[in-house]
Amino acid sequence: MAKIYTLATTGEPVKLLARAIKDHANLHKSKIQIAVRFVANDPGKPELVEHGQPVGARIRVVKLADRSIVPWDAVIDVAARIWSNLDPRQRLGLLDHQLAHLVVPEDERGKPKLDTDGRPILRNRNHDWNLGGFREVVQRHGPASPEARQVAVLYETDGQALFPWVADAAASRPDDEPPKLRAAR
Q: Nearest 5°: phi and psi at 168?
């Protein structure tokens, strides 16, 4: 089968989106319209792919030419299989993450800038950080690998926020027990 796209018009996705957007003051006050659309694909085939990797969701700003014929300013595509395996908190986090990609530029008075149809202009925002790497390179080069250095910098700059449990886990491990690494899947 080809990919199947299904618009979410009611229910949990719409409620979670409304809840998540409240944490994004710039989006909330500009009253942008966002659609949530589920994407299904054949078993064994990813529904959504970014940079060659399966992803749980992605957001895109609707092009100006299309905004004149559809009511949405942005669309969040959600991988249906991944969504079905998430609990409500994880689903909320997934939608919140996608919303964090959107920026509404403001004018000098702090009002949202508008397009020619009078709708808020939207821009995409990159992640604050990205991790990428290869397990085999870390296995060969350890702390000298770019992958290990990326993780070290991330831990130094944002570790307290991202990994608050690390200090507790390290403190509770006996001194003679080496840390265990689990291979990513």
A: -65, -40
Tokens of 62: 């609707």
Crossing angle, helix 88-100 and helix 12-21, to 10 degrees? Answer: 50
Q: How many domains does the chain have?
A: 2
Q: What is the pTM of this model?
A: 0.81
Q: Is 120 found in the same domain as 140?
A: no
Q: Looking at the structure, do residues 10 and 55 belong to the same domain, yes or no?
A: yes
CB atoms within 10 A of CB 123: 11
pLDDT tens readout for residues 101-156: 999 999 999 999 999 889 999 999 998 888 888 889 989 998 888 888 888 888 88
pLDDT tens-digit profile of 57-108? 999 999 999 988 999 999 999 999 999 999 999 999 999 999 999 999 999 9
- Considering the domain architecture, whether residues 104 and 59 belong to the same structural domain is answered as yes
Residue 49: other Cβ atoms inside 10 A: 13
Dihedral, 149, 155, 158, 163 alpha carbons, nearest 10: 140
* 3-class DSSP state of 69: coil
Domain range for 154: 135-172
